[in-house]
Amino acid sequence: MNRLRSWSVARRLTAVAVISGLTMAILGAVAISGINDLRASSDEQNKMGAATGMVQSLDHVAQSIASDAYLAASLEDPSGVPDQLQAHIGELQGVMDGLEGMNLSSSKLELSEEDSAAFQKGFEDFITQASAFVQAALTDQAAARRQLDEIQKSAEQLDGVIDAAVDSVRTATDAYNADQDGVRNRVLWTTIVTGVLGLLLMVTLIALIARSIVGPLRRSVAVLTAFAGGDLSQRADETSAAELGELEHALNQSIDSVAGIVTAVQGSADAVAAASEELSASSQQIAAGAEETSVQAGVVAGAADEVSRNVQTVAAGADEMGASIREIAASANDAARVATEAVTIVERTNET
């Protein structure tokens, strides 16, 4: 779990994709292997089916050869029997060559090399015996008829060999059928087990990865919720790596930044409060000074009124003084005029 936390989100998702791919690849490999095994088993089964048909053809051809022997001993003119016999022998040889070309010794056919040699020798002996019998019948049918029991006995023995071969081929066919069933079961169970194990591994890995992603996200959301509610004391656990680690670190840095701003604002608010108190005290002092100034202004106003009255009194006295001065000036002018007239009179008197 701790190791998963050190992985990036992309790496975790890549791990899920890789596990899924490996599971699918294993399932594909198992399926391909099973298909190949089924195909090989089916090929062998088809080979056994063809071999069964060919062995049964051998039985049919052997009966035809035995019939040729009977015809050679019973027909009035057996001259055409040798050609017919050679045709049947050629057909039999073709079937034998076909069986030999099928390479049945590499299959599940329980037939040893000795059995194969004995099987082939049985047909060769039967062909030799039948050919000799037909040639003898061409010259002496009566003597040949006395040897029909030997041909019949050889044919029965050959039938036994053919039946044994057919049984062996059928046994091999049943074995291949069982193999196919086994392959199907193996592929089925291997696919089921691989699928279940792969699914469990994927589910476990997905659960671990989801937990490694969802856990830090939930804690970060809880911190964000507390942060939105005004709680700046919560912090995200920076235990993740890559994108989630960057998210946790960025969230803590954001909360630290906001906490610093709030602290600075609180300091400024305290300073403003102190300044407000000082301003309030200053306002009170200013108010007291204003009252004193108002009182002094009243005193000054009274003094000003008194000065105004004094000024008015002085002005009235000045007016009276001016009138007196004007009267004195007039009197002085009259005196000067009288003096001038007196001087004139004196001068006139002196001249006289």
Question: Can you give a write-up of this model?
Answer:
With 352 residues, the chain is mainly alpha-helical. It has a domain at 2-220: Four Helix Bundle (Hemerythrin (Met), subunit A). Helix content is 89%, strand content 0%. The chain is rod-shaped, with a radius of gyration of 72 Å. The model has no long low-confidence stretch (mean pLDDT 76).
Provide a concise account of the structure shown.
This protein is mainly alpha-helical and about 350 residues long.
Distance between the termini: 160 Å
Mean pLDDT: 76
The name of the CATH architecture of the domain at 2-220 is: Up-down Bundle
Major sheet characteristics: none
* β-strand number: 0
Helix tally equals 7
Residue share in helix: over 70%
CATH topology description of the domain at 2-220:
Four Helix Bundle (Hemerythrin (Met), subunit A)
Structural class: mainly alpha
Shape: rod-shaped
Text of the CATH class of the domain at 2-220: Mainly Alpha
C-alpha Rg (nearest Å)? 72 Å
What is the chain-wise order of helices and strands?
HHHHHHH
Bin the strand percentage. Answer: under 5%
Which spans have pLDDT < 50 for at least 5 consecutive residues?
none
